[in-house]
Specification:
Blueprint (H helix, E strand, L loop, with lengths): L5 E6 L7 H11 L3 E6 L9 H8 L3 E2 L14 H7 L2 E7 L1 H9 L5 H8 L4 E5 L3 H5 L1 H12 L3 E2 L3 E4 L5 E5 L3 H15 L6 E6 L4 E2 L5 E2 L6 H12 L3 E6 L11 E4 L3 H9 L7 E4 L6 E3 L18 E3 L3 H7 L6 E8 L3 H11 L4 E6 L11 E2 L2 E4 L4 E3 L3 E2 H15 L1
Parallel strand pairs: 1-2, 1-4, 2-3, 4-5, 5-6, 9-12, 9-14, 12-13, 14-17, 17-18
Antiparallel strand pairs: 7-8, 10-11, 15-16, 18-20, 19-22, 20-21
Length: about 400
């Protein structure tokens, strides 16, 4: 959910400032881009060097006009750059100044000029947070649509216990993800995703199948969940655990997958067909295991039903249909034909010619081709990151 999101972390003078290091680490693990602005008081609790090293960006605390040296310490530019400004920890002093519109340092100037949403996570001693003035100031910030990440009960630096301890970094990141999820165009949408292979029985023991692991489809389902979507995952047989979606439909054959998709498709806003569905199946399944001595002279095959083509033919207005193409040669040409012939909104192409992409691996390298045949090219990435790219593309279509 936080992939490519720009988070401006504002650190104030609180003993809890040391948790900013853990917070940056967690945000970076979510593939967010992080910049840090600090008050001078915050330097007493954690060094700018530590936060600069973890964030990969310089840390600033003071106004400067020396911009030609590549610094980015302009409060207007910072406010425009960020997708979210996060004040954590937010001390009693900074909360009061935010509420009063006081502008006596770079952090507050950035807050007052920020065009992005602002979240604040209070941290102070037990009796301070109970003071009517602090409660009034917190209420003012909430009324102005600042996002309040409530402090937690726990042991404080003073040795006391109270409900003024900075929320743990994991909880802060969780609430930020929930915020962005609520803003996602997929929030509340119904998304049907297919994943994995199908198995077409030859006899009760043997089958025709492929090497699909289901990893790509499962990653898409997980990311769709994080964006607030209602997810139905139709999965062929896999060896990995499926994400905990609202509806999991386990199927075996192409026919099973056809029935599962066609009976549900009309109720869904987005259809993402990432499964590797068999194109052919044995025309006749043997009722008993074929003995080695007996053998078969040949196995006659017939085509399976084309799920993607039928979904395209029955696609409703406003419904988004995404197909997948795994090719071993002439990838772009074949994918474009599939895109047009099956009435898709876009097709995701990956090739067996690309190293560390395709079946069975944890990475993928994709191109997404639009209905007008414009091509978006992506780098080799973990499938969890590829899923984010695909769903960002879907959101743009919505």
């Amino acid at each position: 959910m936080l992939a490519s999101k720009k988070i401006l972390l504002a650190v104030t003078g609180s003993i809890a400032a040391y948790k900013a290091a853990f917070l940056i680490r967690l945000l970076k693990q979510e593939s967010a881009e992080v910049k840090v602005v600090m008050t001078r008081a915050a330097h007493d609790f954690i060094t700018p060097l530590s936060l600069a090293t973890l964030s990969g960006n310089p840390v600033v605390s003071d106004f400067s006009s020396d911009l030609d040296k590549g610094t980015w310490d302009n409060h207007v530019e910072l406010g425009l750059w960020a997708d979210l400004m996060l004040v954590a920890p937010a001390s009693a002093n900074t909360i009061s100044k935010m509420a009063g519109g006081i502008c006596d340092n770079l952090l507050l100037a950035t807050y007052l000029s920020a065009k992005c949403p602002v979240a604040f996570a209070p941290a102070m001693d037990r009796d301070m947070i109970k003071h009517p003035s602090i409660q009034d100031n917190i209420s003012k910030l909430i009324k102005r649509r600042n996002i309040h990440i409530k402090s937690e009960f726990g042991e404080l630096a003073s040795g006391l216990e109270g409900e003024s301890r900075l929320a743990e970094p994991e909880e802060i990141v969780k609430q930020i993800k929930e915020y962005f999820s609520s803003k996602s165009k997929l929030n509340g949408k119904k998304v049907l995703i297919t994943a994995g292979p199908t198995q077409e029985a030859i006899d009760p023991v043997r089958y025709i199948g492929n090497r699909s692991s289901g990893k790509m489809g499962f990653a898409i389902a997980s990311d769709a969940l994080s964006r607030g979507a209602h997810v139905c995952l139709v999965s062929g047989p896999t060896q990995i655990n499926a994400p905990k979606v609202q509806e999991l439909v386990s199927v075996e054959s192409a026919s099973d997958m056809y029935e599962a998709c066609m009976s549900r498709a009309a109720d869904f806003d987005v259809l993402i067909m990432s499964a590797a569905v068999a194109d052919f199946r044995p025309k006749q399944m043997q009722g008993k295991k074929i003995k080695k001595e007996q053998g078969l002279e040949h196995i006659e095959l017939e085509s399976t039903k084309d799920i993607l083509k039928e979904l395209g033919a029955k696609k409703q207005e406003g419904q988004v249909l995404i197909g997948f193409a795994l090719e071993s040669e002439n990838g772009l040409e074949n994918a474009k034909k599939k895109l047009q012939s099956k009435n898709l909104d876009a097709i995701v192409l990956n090739s067996l010619e690309d190293e560390n992409a395709g079946f069975g691996v944890d990475t993928n390298l994709i191109r997404i081709i639009s209905k007008d045949e414009a091509i978006d090219q992506y780098e080799l990435k973990p499938k969890s990151e590829v899923a984010k790219d695909i769903l960002n593309y879907v959101e743009a279509l919505i």
